Amino acid sequence: MSGDFLGVGWTSPVQLDEKGQVVTAQYEDCVRQSIWTILSTARGERVMRPDFGCGIHDLVFASNSAATSGEIVSEVSQALLEWEPRIDVLNVDVYAAPNQPNQLLIQINYQVRTTNNRFNLVYPFYLG
Question: What does pTM read for this prediction?
Answer without folding.
Answer: 0.84
